[in-house]
Amino acid sequence: MSSEQEIFDKCGRTYNAGDTIFREGDLGNEMYIIQSGRVKITKQLKDGVEKTLVILGPGDFFGEMAVIDKDVRSANASAMDASRLIALDEEVFEMHMQTNPKIVKKILKNLTSRLREANQQIANLMIKDANRLVANTILLVVHKHGQEGPNGITMDINFTVQELSKMCGLDFPKTQEIVDKLIKAKVVSLSGETIIVTSLDNLEKFIKFLEMKEQFGE
Ligand code: CMP
């Protein structure tokens, strides 16, 4: 039996698409490493809107915060696809932290880039103009998940208008209305429900245009 299979037999968890792994406010004493599938981390906003903080994939970990600071879960985690996770309890996690500097470095690196992203998201959410918020969020997604293809930039996540609305914390109809404008401006196109960025240049110009409009008025 491979050692990966042995680890999975001991600490593995399987989830179906849409399953809740844990909810914000739950007590938790395990962190998870994603072996396969994708996991969405979300937070409930005041008005019932759910905001996606991040989408994680194989090799990523989550749930370490409650283990480190012994507080409750800071966000919801749910499986986006059929997923296999490795669960590490507090004891195993502490043992790795004390004996494996590579793991400590990986966690620090990950927390640092998460903080960087959170700072970007704070700056993004300060944007009052919904058009610029949506366009800027698409730009952040392109930088993190984009890959150039023959028809434009596609994302390695399921990047639908629904998903975009959750990232922006806007309702679906408003987000769709803005995406329609971006389609007209030849910034994005839809392939089924998936958003493709047809021109990064147009996206950047669109954002610049909105910034100037905000600065100098109509
Ligand atoms: P924990 O608080 O235990 O449970 C929720 C998990 O979501 C948290 O640990 C982190 O692993 C992860 N998480 C929380 N906030 C963010 C964020 N802003 N970006 C990425 N991951 C996050």
Count of domain modules: 2
Helical stretch tally: 8
Largest beta-sheet characterization: 4 strands, antiparallel
**Could you state the order of secondary-structure elements as H and E?**
HEEEEEEHEEHHHEEHHEEH
Beta-strand segment tally: 12
Give the % helix.
40-55%
Structural class: alpha+beta
CATH homologous group name of the largest domain: Jelly Rolls
Overall pLDDT score? 91
Task: Kindly provide the name of the CATH class of the largest domain.
Answer: Mainly Beta
Shape annotation: elongated
Give a verbal description of the structure.
It is a single chain. This protein is an alpha+beta fold and 218 residues long. It folds into two domains: 4-124, Sandwich (Jelly Rolls), CATH 2.60.120.10; 128-216, Arc Repressor Mutant, subunit A (Orthogonal Bundle), CATH 1.10.10.10. Helix content is 48%, strand content 26%. The chain contains eight helices and twelve strands. The chain has helices spanning 3-11, 64-69, 90-99, 101-125, 130-145, 161-168, 172-184, 200-216; strands spanning 12-15, 20-22, 30-36, 39-44, 50-56, 61-62, 76-79, 83-89, 146-149, 152-155, 188-191, 194-197. The strands form four sheets. A four-stranded antiparallel β-sheet has the order 1-8-3-6. Strands 2-7-4-5 form a four-stranded antiparallel β-sheet. It has a two-stranded antiparallel sheet with strand order 9-10. A hairpin with a 2-residue loop joins β9 and β10 (152-155). α5 (130-145) packs across α6 (161-168), α5 (130-145) runs antiparallel to α8 (200-216) and α6 (161-168) crosses α7 (172-184). Residues 28, 41, 53-54, 62-66, 73-75, 77, 114, 118 line the site of adenosine-3',5'-cyclic-monophosphate (CMP).
